[in-house]
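Before any further analysis, we paired sequence with structure tokens, yielding the entry below:
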Amino acid sequence: MNEFTKLLYDECVVNRIDFMKLTIPSILYTVQNTLQYYSISLLSAPVFQVLSQLKILTTAIFSVLLLSRKLSVIQWTSIVFLSGKTSFIYSLIYLLTDFLTYSYIRRCVISPIIPIK
């Protein structure tokens, strides 16, 4: 046990910079997951999916801004298509579901009461 405590002390106290490099992202990841569970209870499934796919795009933007990484045109194009296709598909599903629900209500609920011309 003495060897373990010495190793723990060395990694957490002596190598503080390395410890902080791992601690800050892990705390942010925990906060992100907590907020994600909270948001899924408030949002519909398509909206949640679209917003979660935007994480790819924001990660790319922050890696360029904060880490000074360079992304090629092909990488940017693939990131935009990856985020865009999911957003587009789920937007279509959401609109189609909304339209079909409205059409069903209009046909089955409103029409028998108020004739539609």
User: Anything to note?
Assistant: The chain has a mean pLDDT of 78.
